[in-house]
């Protein structure tokens, strides 16, 4: 699961794995609103979940995304 | 042209939807053929097309008037864990009511089927499509959406809304490699339309002087679904035999 999550992040934001831990909208030029929604769509599709709107806004870094996913039963 | 692609076509039982299924199959696409209710004739028809062209067709049944059914239909498609490369939102209903006598309930029902249903279905499937490299959504609008007529407030408004949604979705999904376009058919001789137009003694006054066929619309849908239209998104192509159509009774 963790590798799938890492791969999705890299794919959506076009970054390398070593950039993941510091990935936020402030550190990545590619993390704009459209790419944020791309990430949400990809996570929902991959993990077969539906985020509540407030959780969509909670995903503001690689780490916070993991925390939100855990709420939906995704185990890393 | 569509070899190895997977397509979803709604309203696949008859008319433009049925013609699109056959056209896509002819060009190598696998298809989820969606219709409102199961029946043996439809299953048999889809099976024949599948055998004729050597592709798979899976039938999916749900009613566009029912959100929970739409969600279930989308889930059935997504559960296959296959890429969804093409979506054709064709299913629709039609109605003719002069505004002063129109039932708001009927207008709401038409909007549920012709506008909100396709939006919800698209929202569900786009998740998968956004993960592909080059996906295409084709919405079936109508000449009525470009050129309203008396008695067609609900239908014209819903189809116009679908055209605007097409333009907006094109902007939102472009960065994910999803193109979104529409076709706006005019007087097409699907069985339902032919009956309707005959009852209303409708004249044929487009430039070509005849009804179009569902197959002729399907050719344009094929173009928009394929990479041949790779530099097009947010566009609505009229397929009208030269506009000028007048759906009012003579």
UniProtKB/TrEMBL annotation, chain A:
Kindly provide the name given to this protein in its UniProt entry.
Carrier domain-containing protein
Q: What single Pfam family name could you report for this chain, choosing any that match?
A: PP-binding
Which residue numbers delimit the Carrier domain? 6-61
> From which organism does this entry originate?
Pseudooceanicola atlanticus
């Amino acid at each position: 699961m963790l590798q799938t999550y890492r791969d999705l992040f890299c794919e959506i934001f076009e970054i390398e794995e070593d950039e993941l831990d510091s990935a936020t909208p402030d550190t990545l030029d590619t993390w704009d609103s459209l790419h944020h929604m791309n990430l949400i769509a990809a996570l929902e599709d991959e993990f077969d979940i539906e985020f509540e709107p407030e959780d969509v806004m909670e995903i503001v870094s690689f780490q916070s995304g993991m925390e939100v996913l855990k709420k939906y039963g995704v185990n890393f | 042209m569509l070899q190895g692609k997977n397509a979803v076509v709604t309203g696949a039982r008859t008319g433009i939807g049925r013609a699109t299924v056959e056209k896509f199959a002819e060009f190598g696409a696998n298809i989820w053929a969606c219709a409102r209710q199961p029946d043996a004739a439809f299953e048999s028809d889809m099976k024949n097309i599948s055998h004729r062209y050597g592709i798979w067709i899976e039938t999916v049944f749900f009613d566009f008037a029912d959100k929970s059914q739409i969600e279930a239909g989308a889930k059935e498609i997504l559960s296959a864990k296959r890429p969804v490369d093409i979506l054709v939102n064709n299913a629709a209903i039609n109605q003719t009511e002069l505004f002063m006598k129109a039932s708001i309930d009927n207008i709401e029902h038409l909007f549920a089927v012709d506008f909100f249903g396709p939006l919800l279905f698209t929202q569900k499937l786009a998740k998968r499509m956004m993960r592909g490299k080059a996906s295409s959504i084709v919405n079936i609008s109508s000449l009525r959406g470009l050129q309203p007529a008396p008695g067609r407030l609900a239908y014209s408004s819903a189809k116009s809304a679908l055209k605007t949604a097409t333009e907006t979705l094109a902007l939102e999904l472009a960065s994910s490699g999803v193109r979104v376009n529409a076709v706006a058919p005019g007087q097409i001789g699907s069985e339902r339309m032919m009956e309707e137009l005959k009852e209303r003694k409708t004249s044929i006054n487009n430039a070509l002087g005849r009804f179009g066929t569902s197959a002729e619309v399907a050719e344009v849908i094929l173009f928009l679904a394929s990479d041949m239209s790779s530099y097009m998104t947010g566009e609505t192509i009229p397929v009208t035999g030269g506009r000028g159509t007048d759906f009012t009774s003579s």
